[in-house]
Amino acid sequence: MSQPPPQGAIAEFTEVDGLIAAVRAARAAGWSRLDAHAPHPVPEAAEALGARAAPVAWIAVAAGIFGAATAYGTEWYLSVHDYPLNVGGRPMDAWPVFLPAAYIVGVLWAAAAALLGMLRLNRLPRLHHPVFQARGFHRASQDRYFLHLSAEDPLFEPEAALEFLRGLAPLRVSVVRAA
Amino acid sequence: MSLSTAPVVAATLRPGGWGFRIALLLALAGVAVLAGAVSTLLVLGIGVWGNNIPYVWGFDLIAYAWWIGIANAASLFAAVLVLRRHGLRTAVNRFAEAVALAAVLAAALYPILHLGRPWLFGWTIPYPATTRLWPQFGSPLVWDFWGIMAHVVVTSLFWFIGLIPDLATLRDRAATEGRWAMARAYGLFALGWRGSVVHWHRHQAAYRLVAALVLPLLLSAQTVVALEFATTLVPAWHQARLPVHVVVTGLPSGIGVVLAMAAVLRQALSLERFVDAEDMDLLARLLACAALASGAAYAHELVTGLYLEDPETRAALAARAFGTGAPAYWGAVLLAVLLPQLLWRQGLRSRAWVVIPVGLLAAAGVWLDRWSLVVGGLLRERLPAHAVAYAPSPAEWALLGGSAALFAAALLLFGRYIPVVAIFEIRHEETLTEAAEEER
Amino acid sequence: MPPHPMGETAGRRDVLLMGASVALAAAGCDGPDEHGHPLHARPRGVAAEDASYATVLDLEGLGRGVLVRTRAGHAVKLEGNPQHPASLGATDIFAEAAVLSLHDPERSRRIRRDGAPLPPAELDAALAEARAALRTAGGAGLRLLTGPIASPTLARLIGEVLAAYPGARWHQHDPLADDAALAGAMAAFGRPVAVLPDLGRARAVLCLGADPLGPGPAQLRQARDWSSGRREGRAAGRMPRLFVAEASPSLTGARADRRIPLHPAEAEGFARAVAAALGVPGLARQGAHPEAAGIAAALREAGPAGLVLAGRGQPPAVHALALAMNQALGAPGTSLRLTVPPLAQPEPMAASLAGLTSAMAANEVTHLLVLGANPLAEAPAALGFAAALRRVGFTLHAGQWVDETAHACRWHVPLPHPLEAWGDARASCGTPAIRQPVTLPLVEAARGEAELLSALLGPPQTARAAVANTWRTAWGEADFESRWDAALEAGIAGEPAPAIAPALRPDWDRPGEAAPATLTAVFAPDIGPEAQNAWLQEMPRPLTGLAWGNAALFDPLTAATLGLAPGDEAELTLEGRQVLAACWPVPGQAPGCVTLPLGGGRRAAGAVGTGRGFDANRLRPADGAWAAPGLAVRATGRRAALVATQAHHRPDEAGAVPRLAPGEALAPIQPGASLHPDWAYEGRAWAMSIDVDACIGCNACAIACQAENNVPVVGPEELARGRGMHWLRIDRYDAPPAAPAAASFQPVPCMHCEKAPCEPVCPVNATVHDSEGLNVMVHARCVGTRTCSNNCPYKVRRFNWDDHRRALDTPRRNPEVALRPRGVMEKCTYCSHRITAARTQAGLEGRALRDGEVETACQRACPTQAITFGDLNAPGSAVAALRRDGRSYALLGHLETRPRTTYLAQTVPGETA
């Protein structure tokens, strides 16, 4: 009883194909709260898990447009209303000259939003995660592939999960427990 | 497979060899010179430079435009590689990003230091100051403020996004070796990256998106620098074609520096396996291409400038290209256009002792082009009001050398503490290669 | 010469401090008896805080009236006295710069014997001893050496000294004296005569080496007359003609309608040819020149309105020829007036100094008083004055600086600056004026010439008492008090000298010896005794663009033949005497002669003046000749340190100065098309019009601007690097070879463009427009990107590469104009502080501003009234009328910057004329 409750079960693979096959098999078996870890992008596995990248793009586009509009609006307000000045005989609302900065600021917002949006969607930064406790998981950033079945899955039952994973021909399987 | 990435990771983690230490020492000595030059500048003012009226800009803006050109060409190159998922990106794009970032840092010195009162630099930022005055948003210098700020931020983002998984690798390697402090440091910046394929998917989307955003930004950044000149009434500068000319003629500098860097690192860090002969070959041919494009820009300039423009512009170009400005103008053509054409020969572009000097000389040629623009462009003014030419002072040489040392030091430290080539991409590529082999 | 502190080479910092005009003593608030009489006082502030005083300053011994503006007792700015006939409200460079010399920290402050400072009582004792010794000898051995003296008081005192000491002698020396003019007058009339031209009435003028528009005591008057003559002539459709035959281009030559470069050896022949063509009776010899007939025809057509002027450097025969031609034309009474010379004792000064030198060499001199002269620097080295001086027992030098002569004399007494001392003067036309101090003496130990002269007669008299005595005698006791006050207030104390009508002697023509037509050295004046004035040193010389020194001026062809490029060092040899000088080619210089400006290469002028350029006096013949044949030139192969602000050849490729035939008109100034709507200026719209046709390039406006706006002096090194700070520069354009004149001058202040290119590029709104259309520079907001200068096509913006505030923040500064810190731009403001002051004044009086009420400093200084300033929107304003003039144009108008400063084109003789 000294052991903490299990957080999930994990299987380790040496080949990327093993992982892809394992993910597909798990989905087919009805597992919903699962994740795959790889040292490089595995688009097939991501597709199998139903990941979509489009939201990142939409966040960036929206932020870019908002940023450009804010920049233009600020330039216009400050130059025309807040402190109007005769600069070189130009009208105060010399709109073409407001465009370059608005454009650049829009790009800046979009780029920042792409990073922040990606991190937000990934729920990062998160420096502690139960999966880090898995045996040998440090190789997930180097040369090993992992399939992790979360304990939050309604199907999860430690022994059954391990049994299922063993059926996928992994290098090894283990139960993930919080430290 | 763990063997394959080992040299890259090891290169970042093991203590530097003697060559590295000497190089870093030299670079840091140069940075000390830079610190001295900057302190002198701040205490004594820019009167220590050789500028005057009408040559109010000299080494400051030449170096600025030049560094920006290097940064832009290198970023542009890295972004195109990411977007095209070109094979070369695995080897070279991280250098290119690092070169770009270091060059932007070197460039960013100048807009502040060239001011008569650098401590008031903040007045170009729109913040509610006590005077209630705002920046003048129509000024190309304000556009440039946004341009360089966005350039620094977006280049850093681009570089950082690509770096997150590699930092996770380093974190885990260090932890495996029991170096916990280092693991914590890398881990903090890795943001808890755990290699989830879902994360990978969004990460790749964001990476490509930022790469795509880098392209218009770089074009605009270089364009804004050119606009600082093109929006004036100086006959040699007041040309609609100038932004395109500056962007195109800037390309050989960035690609040349990336090429030279790649050749140096390959030798110094024994990374032949990751930056292979084919990579070098492709890069060298790219430099030759950029030089050719640059040559086309010069040809266009001469034809339109000498035959189609108004007399004042014609006279100004004639003074730049055929008058006292001729050495710089044709020096730029020789080094940045003609010299890289040697690289079309297979036998030459495969040799490090050829590509390193050619790459660096191409960058020097672009510097001469910027001199020809900033200084040579003022040889003919609207009124013949002044007799005194511009000559750089030792303080300006110190600043130029110092900023080059800063660039070198940043790259050396980068090479030491951060993976030189993108580890995750090499892994990915190897996986794909092996898969292909198995299929065969 | 023993080593002395002032002879050391000065560092750059010293020079800058000099430009700084540090006050020597706190000029205070208690008005002493010696203090002057306030003329103008504004309603606000008490008189002592803000007042102007009328006084008079000497140049070559002759006075020009000035008004001195003071702030809190400090003299700040000089302007011309409109009531004074030699000023007419204008100033020249020397008058403008006098206020800087007044505050020169290197002025002599102590009485010295053998270089060591002594209390004044020691001097009094020495003078008493000298007096006793001289009285027993009847004054034998006493010599006085002064500059040219026109001051009635000094002349009276010298007369009294000579009467008290019958054996004493008085010598005058002026390196710029024109002894040949005196000789010519003696030949023609048998008496000294002053020729006062009236260029306003003259219809055709021939200058034989004369430079009536160039620097000199009559420049302001003559330039004003010349320009008004041109204005009236243009209005009447008959432009007066100006012919100039000269060796080296002068300001007059630059503005000539026909200029003939003439080697000095040809001068007499040319004059004879014109005289012969005019049919002047009594010619002893004929001459020939292809141009003579045309010029004679123009002169003959003008008749009594014709005028011939012979200038410095011409032989006596040419002066006599000029006088005879004027008599033949009937010019006296119309285009010129002959009067008694204003100098108290006209004499050939070179001969006078030579007489003194030989007397000293023969041990005939026991006591020598040098009052306000500096023969060791200004006399030809060949004369041997310095060696002869060592034979004199008692030598006393009175001067404002411890200069070369001070070092050679036993005693040195500091002279007060003319702005802090009482005195009197005569103008070139003879009009007397009383000089009053406008500030407390900054040098307490200073003693004026009058005090020193009276000390020879008995107990010293104050200068004020001496001056008052002179005029009490002249006016009579009854009138004295009222006339004295009136004279101080008006700045003039009498009438001009009456005209005389001497008859031409029958034997007037005494042909000179033919000079060999070899390479000839021609000596020329420069800033001369004002070498220690930093404003004048830094002022680019109008025809060469050189500053902080001089150069030997060659015609471009001769220089090329000798293998000399601009700025090369040349070794000049004349009769065995040698000097090294920089070579500078000057378009328009007559071939075969080299012009050597005098006054450079000083050995002990002070930190500013020492060692600037070369000393032409080392070559000048002992007789003080203005031209000397037999010059040998050799290129040394070295480069000379030369500060050139403009190229040696400046053709007008940009069309900056259009040249119109009489009656020709330019297209009216119209705003061109613009994508943006125009900015409406509903209220005042300040504008300036500069008549390029009237500009003589005298630089008075530039120095006035420097004085008014606290414009720093940057020193030779910085100026050579292109970092001069003058807000107003004068561009010279060399005429094409076939053109009649030598050059055009174009003053270039800020254009105050309505579509100012400098403004939209400033990132921080540091340069913007105000509601009256002024392009204002907000120094406090400037971060120093300098991009505004890049975008200024006129290049009128200046950058503070260094911090000049310490050097400028002295009692001399104009408190109404802020000092600029390092790292900011600055430029012409249209004297916006004057606009503000006038607006405030009008507001206090509850009235509208009057046209012409705001005068910019440059406009106020201009002797030819070339600059007009005012409100373009005011109905009937002068500047609006000039903008509609057919000669009006915008500089670089095709750039569509819509400048508020516009120009009036030059008029050149038409094809038929």
TrEMBL record, chain A:
Q: Which InterPro entries match?
A: ActD
Q: Which Pfam families match?
A: ActD
- Look up keyword DNA repair and say if it applies: no
Q: Does the keyword Phosphoprotein apply?
A: no
What keywords would UniProt list here?
A: Membrane, Transmembrane, Transmembrane helix
Which parts pass through the membrane? 56-74, 94-119
Protein known as: DUF3341 domain-containing protein
Automatic annotation (TrEMBL), chain B:
Parts of the chain that traverse the membrane: 22-49, 61-83, 95-113, 145-164, 209-230, 242-265, 286-308, 328-344, 351-368, 397-418
Which locations, inside or outside the cell, does it occupy?
Answer: Cell membrane
Q: Note the topology in the membrane.
A: Multi-pass membrane protein
* Pfam families (UniProt xref): NrfD (PF03916)
In terms of superkingdom, the source organism counts as Bacteria
Kindly state which keywords UniProt assigns to this record, in alphabetical order: Cell membrane, Membrane, Transmembrane, Transmembrane helix
Q: Which family does the record assign?
A: Belongs to the NrfD family.
Protein name per UniProt: Polysulfide reductase NrfD
Q: What is the lineage of its organism?
A: Bacteria, Pseudomonadati, Pseudomonadota, Alphaproteobacteria, Acetobacterales
> What would be the name of the gene that encodes this protein?
nrfD
Automatic annotation (TrEMBL), chain C:
Q: Which domain of life is it from?
A: Bacteria
Annotated InterPro entries: 4Fe4S_Fe-S-bd, Asp_de-COase-like_dom_sf
Which intervals hold domain 4Fe-4S ferredoxin-type?
A: 686-716, 741-772, 773-802
**What Pfam families would the database entry show?**
Fer4_11 (PF13247)
Protein name from the UniProt record: 4Fe-4S dicluster domain-containing protein
Q: According to the entry, what is the taxonomic lineage of the organism?
A: Bacteria, Pseudomonadati, Pseudomonadota, Alphaproteobacteria, Acetobacterales
